[in-house]
Amino acid sequence: MALSTESPGKATAACPSQYLTFELGDEMFAVGTLNVREIIEYGPITSVPLLPPSIRGVINLRGAAVPVLDLGVRFRGERTVQTSRTCFVILEVQTDNVRKPVGIIVDAVSEVLEIADQAIEPSLNFGTDVRADFLLGIGKLDSGFVLLLDIGRVLSLEQVDVLANLESLVPSAA
C-alpha cells in the first residue's frame, strides 16, 4: 500500500504553502491544507473491536463511516481529553490510488497560515514527543514554532490497511 505525502519543497518563496494549525497538548501542529477536507465539531465515536489503540473508532459523516485517529495516543500514549474546543479534522489520505477520509482528534483548531520554504527547517528530535520521521519539518513563525506533520507517515502502513478496510467492516448510516 503506497502512501502519498506532501513535501514542503514544492512551494517557493514567492508561493508559500498553506497549513492548518491546531493544538494538541502543549504543542502546535500543522497539516497542509491540500490534505484537509473539513473541520467538524467533536461528536460520538463508534468503537470498533480489535483496532490499534490510536484508532478510536469511526464517526458518521453524512452517512459514511470515517475512521478517527487519536494523535494524543499516537504521539504520547495518552487519549485526547474532550473539551469545548476539541474537534475532528477530516483529512484525505492517499492509499494506493484512492483518497480516503480519515479524522484526527485535536484539542483546538487555530488558523490557516502561509509558511514559505525558507521558514521551514528540517525536523530534528528536539525534545518533543513526536518522532522526527512523522514531521515534514518545523515551521518558524513570529510567535514561535509549529510542527509540520507528514500525515502519511503518522499513519503506519498497518493502520492504513486497517483504515482502508473499515468501510467494509462498518455499515454506513443512511
Automatic annotation (TrEMBL):
<dbReference type="Pfam" id="PF01584">
    <property type="entry name" value="CheW"/>
</dbReference>
<dbReference type="GO" id="GO:0005829">
    <property type="term" value="C:cytosol"/>
</dbReference>
<dbReference type="GO" id="GO:0006935">
    <property type="term" value="P:chemotaxis"/>
</dbReference>
<feature type="domain" description="CheW-like">
    <location>
        <begin position="16"/>
        <end position="160"/>
    </location>
</feature>
<dbReference type="InterPro" id="IPR002545">
    <property type="entry name" value="CheW-lke_dom"/>
</dbReference>
<protein>
    <submittedName>
        <fullName>Purine-binding chemotaxis protein CheW</fullName>
    </submittedName>
</protein>
<dbReference type="InterPro" id="IPR036061">
    <property type="entry name" value="CheW-like_dom_sf"/>
</dbReference>
<dbReference type="GO" id="GO:0007165">
    <property type="term" value="P:signal transduction"/>
</dbReference>
<dbReference type="InterPro" id="IPR039315">
    <property type="entry name" value="CheW"/>
</dbReference>
